[in-house]
Amino acid sequence: MALMGIQLVVSLLAACIMQRMAPHYSFARWLLCNGSLYRFKHPSEGELCALAGKQMPKPTRKDRRQNGESKPLTVPKDIDLHLEKAPINALDALVLRFFLEYQWLVDFAVYTAGVFIFTECYYSSVDASTEVNIGAIWCVLTVLFSLKTLKTLMSHYFSSEEGGERSVCLAFGFLSLLVAMLVLVVREDYLEFGLESAFSSLFDNLEVFARQQGYAEWSIPVTKLSVKLGLAALCAYIGALLAFPGLRMAQTHLDAVQMNTGRPHIQILLHMSFLSPVIVMILWVKPIARDFLANAPLGKTTVTIVSSETFDSLRLWIIVVLCLLRLAMTRYHMQAYLNLSQKWVEQMKKEAGRIAAIDIQRKVTRIFCYLTVITLQYLVPVFLILFSTLALKSLGDFSWKADADQTPGVTPALILPIAAPVLPGGFDEDEEGMDDMEEDVQATVAHLTEAFMALRSVLTPLFFRGFFAFLTWWVAACQVISSLFGIYFHQYLMQN
């Protein structure tokens, strides 16, 4: 298994380009600042006074309170206020909350996609079955970084003084724990994740690896039940992380559909994008998906529409296309969120009484400042499904081509590189130093090769198939639960 190959060179090159190009060109910055999104400017106090039909008051001593602060300017709520639009530029983006986290994660996801496409082309043209798949490592890192970003956003909600957001996260966490425990006891005849085969493969390989290391009496200290309980706890944590992204997705979906009332083709795409996690869930329901296509009932006989291998490839393609559809709908959802400023103003006009000018300015500004937070809540679940699927394809030995042999591969035998012998005499001190350095590099590569091979002998493609299939399905399930609850909340509870 070669470590110092072309894949590693391309990986280091991509990391270098990402670091060098980030200050000059960033896909994340272009996504918000390409001129297609516009924000609403908050009105000044002079504009509010003009709309209210009075002059700007001058501060006097009589207007001072006992604490030394001036009396806030108030205007009627029913004033004819219309917010001014302005396209978002790079300077505006600098004031956004969590902008650096957003820029780094989105750019990393873009470069991960590039590295993955290169490794797929490399594997299709060269027999590199014994090499480390660098593209799969990038995909796994993107999944981990996405979860870390969601954890950062959730910690922001937990630090809120009101505590309502904290209760929502905890409630969805306990609900996810209950649902995960129910899902994990469903038989493979209904949900075909392959977790049973994955756990069996993991335990068997661990015992073999322990015996090879000289631990003859060593046994697995845990059981499948304890592993499933740990997996259920992880599912509860992911469910808590995806609570607010799903709720926000529901609100932006309703607003985006309403915003594109006169464009039925865009509305159809928005509905397809919203229902895409449901399709992802159905793809792993065996009686509905695989059995219907591979063993379709026709009277007393069954007809095979597509083979089992073709269905595996088709499922990967469908998930990737659905993720790309959601990414294509990003602009409509983000503009629907930005339109909340004008929507709030229209709602304010229907109310009676007066409101402080600073409250109007603060509300309009706050909606824009949280744009990157909303963008992360929209994009991160898509990244989780997309790159979990790509990792499933690479680490699970699947194929993009239909009718290809997709049997999980067997770990090859460990072959350590043999260092070239050093011939005595005929070398000066510099050449001997270079030879010593080369021997050290070869020894390091040999140790790393042995470590990766040992890890590969334990974590086989059969294990990765079960784990990443379940992870992909679970992220989609969490989105369905939270987004449907968000639809019910915004469509019925908020109106009542």
UniProtKB/TrEMBL annotation:
InterPro entries cross-referenced by the UniProt entry: Transmembrane_161A/B
Family: Belongs to the TMEM161 family.
Keywords of the record: Glycoprotein, Membrane, Signal, Transmembrane, Transmembrane helix
Residues of the signal peptide: 1-28
TM spans (from-to): 128-147, 168-186, 229-247, 268-285, 316-334, 367-392, 462-489
Domain of life: Eukaryota
Coiled coil (residue ranges): none
Protein name per its UniProtKB record: Transmembrane protein 161A
One term under GO cellular component: membrane
Provenance organism: Gymnodraco acuticeps
Membrane disposition: Multi-pass membrane protein
Subcellular localization, as worded in the UniProt entry: Membrane
